[in-house]
Amino acid sequence: MASVQDIKRRVRSVQNTRKITRAMELVAAAKLRRAQTRIEAMRPYAERMQELMVGVARASTSLQGLPLLQRREVRKAAILPLTGDRGLAGAFNAQILREAFAQERRLRGEGVEPHWLVAGKKGASTLRFRRYEIGQSWMGFSDSPQYADAQAIAHKVSELYSEQEVDHVVVIYNHFESALTQRVVAQEVLPIPESLLEGGDDDHAQAMLGDFIYEPEPEQILERLLPVYVETELYRALLESAASEQGARMTAMRNASKNAGELIDSLTLQMNRARQAEITQEILEVVAGADALTA
Predict the structure, then answer these.
(1) CA–CA distance from 12 to each of 17, 109, 194, 268, 276 (Å)?
(2) Which end of the chain is more exposed for a tag (fewer CB within 10 A), N or C?
(3) Between residues 198 and 65, which one has the greater pLDDT?
């Protein structure tokens, strides 16, 4: 059995660990509130962007000359997982990478060659450890992504698609639903589905009705809007991923603090039993010594 001093040292160590996990939980909670605010501000902008694209597409005579809309036989597909730069977030990074590898197996089964792009240090290190060739990686902004970060990624994927280096682009990220729930999403980014521009639901169908005069021509406007739409979708994915990461980290640190508290209670009970055993042993030794003197 461990001595009382050994157990005391372990209790102090666990108490220090619990202080750290509680502090990390509070930091993650503050960052989560900011991330939720940014998502709520972003969603109306993304909806208006889609409505504008629907209206311009309806006014266009042809959509054939737009590279980001052109669908072709898929021979090479880009897989873009959005992971975090840090760990200690439960299964946040693992479930994104699990879905990415599942997508890779599915593509290889269909005879499609995967092309890897990755955002986040955790994803990049995992892919390099598995000896995957990474086309490009982006790091350093998973906690608080900016629109410029989404622009950099969107420019790269649009360039790969326009130059026919890839025929399909899918981004994999955690969609934020609550601090306890994050849902993995595999979203097709390119090619942009034409059904999106046809106003599939009633809200989009009624969004841009009216007699408008477009200057320049609707096709030219749409050609400029499509890259911005890709940037907007990637920015929204980055914000969803950032909020999901903070929610997962907050939950993981809360569970860690709870487990540390349970471990401290268990060690305290064990320490009390050890102390009681020592006292009992000392009493027995005193009684035995007294008996020896009186014998």
Answers:
(1) 9, 53, 62, 11, 20
(2) C
(3) 65
**Which residues does 187 contact at the CB level (< 8 Å), separation at least 6?**
170, 171, 172, 173, 233, 237
pLDDT of residue 56: 75
Q: Are 252 and 88 in contact (CB under 8 A)?
A: yes
169 sits in which H/E element: strand 168-176
Is the bond preceding 193 in cis, omega lying within 30 degrees of 0?
A: no
Q: In Å, how far from its chain's centre is CA 101? A: 16
pLDDT at residue 68, as a whole number = 78
Strand 134-138 vs strand 182-190: parallel, antiparallel, or unpaired? unpaired
Tokens linked to 53: 């694209």
Residue 226 has pLDDT above 80, yes or no: yes
Helix 147-162 and helix 218-294, axial crossing angle in degrees, nearest 10: 120
The residues that bridge with 119 in the sheet, in sequence order, are 82, 138
Identity of residue 109: G
Q: What are phi and psi of 185, to 5 degrees?
A: -125, 135
CA distance 212 to 125: 51
Amino acid at 54: V
Winning range, highest mean pLDDT, from 98-107, 176-185, 214-223, 269-278? 98-107
**How many CB atoms within 10 Å of residue 25?**
19
Provide mean pLDDT across the span 6-34: 90
Sign of CA dihedral 180, 184, 190, 193: negative
Of the given ranges (71-80, 96-105, 208-217, 230-239), which has the lowest mean pLDDT?
Answer: 208-217
Q: Specify the 3-state DSSP secondary structure of 74.
A: coil
Q: Which amino acid is at 46?
A: A
